[in-house]
Prior knowledge:
The chain is α+β, with helices and mostly antiparallel strands and 550 residues long. It folds into 3 domains: 92-180, PDZ domain (Pdz3 Domain); 184-395, 2-enoyl-CoA Hydratase, Chain A, domain 1, CATH 3.90.226; 400-532, no CATH class. 43% of the residues lie in helices and 20% in strands. It has helices spanning 2-48, 55-68, 82-90, 117-121, 142-149, 206-220, 239-247, 294-304, 400-407, 410-421, 435-447, 455-470, 473-497, 499-524, 529-539, 541-548; strands spanning 75-77, 92-95, 98-103, 106-112, 128-132, 135-136, 156-162, 169-175, 177-180, 184-191, 194-199, 226-230, 255-261, 268-271, 283-287, 308-312, 320-327, 331-341, 372-374, 380-382, 391-392. The strands form 5 sheets. Strands 3, 4, 5, 6, 7 and 8 form a 6-stranded antiparallel beta sheet that branches. The longest helix is centred in the N-terminal third of the chain and has 47 residues, at 2-48. The model is unreliable at 6-20 (pLDDT under 50).
Amino acid sequence: MKKxxxxxxxxxxxxxxxxxxxxxxxxxxEIAQSLDIMASAYRDLNDYYVDSVDPSKLMQTGIEAMAQSxxxxxxxxxxxxxxxxxxxxxxxxxxxxxxxxxTHDAIVVSDVVENGPFANAGIHTGDFILSLDDTPVNKLSxxxxxxxxxxxxxxxxxxxxxxxxxDKITDYKIIRQEIDIPAxxxxxxAAPGIGYIKxxxxxxxxxxxxxxxYQKIKQEHPELKGLMIDLRGNPGGLMxxxxxTANLFLPQGDTIMSTRGRLPEWDHVYTADLKPMDTRIPLVxxxxxxxxxxxxxxxxxxxxxxxxxxxxxxxxxxxxxxxxRNLPYDTKIKxxxxxxxxxxxxxxxxxxxxxxxxxxxxxxxxxxxxxxFHTKDGRIVRSAGGIMPDKVVSKDSLSNxxxxxITGDYFFDFATQYYYKxxxxxxxxxxxxxxxxxxxxxHFLKDxxxxxxxxxxxxxxxxxxxxKQEGSFNAIKDDYQAMYAKVKQQQNQDLMTHKHEIMQxxxxxxxxxxxxQRGRIAQQLPADKVVKVAVNLLNDTTEYHQLLNN
Length: 550
């Protein structure tokens, strides 16, 4: 009897092994079959398509489509795009240190990197690029222009520049260099005793930059009683830098995050292994819908460990981890390998890309599938929806007139003129426009024949069109014209109605001319609604601790 039982067990085990082997075999057969089909289609398209086909471009399109069908973070990088991947991870690239835009049928320098080759040559935001390496820019596409601006450090670029302030045309020979975009875009005080560090992206060296910035603030302001870490608009970056940044403010041994993937090699628990910098300073972390991935690792750790208060608006909700692998011929592929989990055990991924409805659409994870988790001290936090702030601050809406001034480059152009007419640098973060400056801006708009269309005007015109189609417009024409005149009259008053907002935005733009991006941030801080809430919170220890102990 025992022998028969043993035989049955052995036979059952063999059946299971064969079944497993067949499943593996089926999987590899499916891969081989798919590769055969793809190779055949690729060959036939190259051989028989009616027009000439670029084989490399066709294959690149196929690989990119395959990657993008999985999720937006899986991406193929051909050899000529590896510099983009390198910039994502290091914050560095070879080039001249500018951004450009096409406006008024010309190529305009829209931003300049501080201490970059263009900045050091005396080329400013608002100046016009006329030619690159003796080729007029109006004969080049934007991609061609971008390609010429980038290049290996040490190589040269000849360019002809029209300076916006004096209409002077100058020839320059620019030597490209390695452009290093700092991860910490601004650090200083948001208010007396309240430190502020803005992290733009988690690239190589971010934790070291944050550490150096914090130590500098403490050294210059020993009375420091609170710190604000601004992650708004930070799309993420390197996971290791997020871990080390969080480690700066967490006790050794605390769990910062964990990852789980389809393969065991991606299952890992990450703890604060390094000696922290400061585990006692009250912290507020600012987030919004543009805070994603590595930003959410830091914010999630601070929230789940009750180390700091999260202020702002719900974060993006990207709880996926990517890695890169080398492919033949100096190409790479980046793809998702795991999900990450905050210290409480929640995954903050807001979209389930595996639930594609076969029409290319994915949806947010429904509330019914979201779960409650608990922070270190017992506060309830939820999964599958990004990081919900402990103190939510609603978004200020931009007025229609301010939006029109931005999109029409009126702030941009006036700031360029102002900079050339006022060469003396104003004090950083302490610049104020006078009434005369505002009046000059109004005259500038008048000279430029500034006009814009409001939502009310759009609605009225749609109403008019419908009335004409229905044949009833003549009966209400006088009423329509009277109402339209009132809308236009109100529109003319909008500049004065939104004067404070307009002056603030204009001052931000002007300060970016003198101090680059750090000038813009410093000018924005005193008027920033979210920053004001965070400052009040750090000054009010009772509310701060109530939020952490809720």
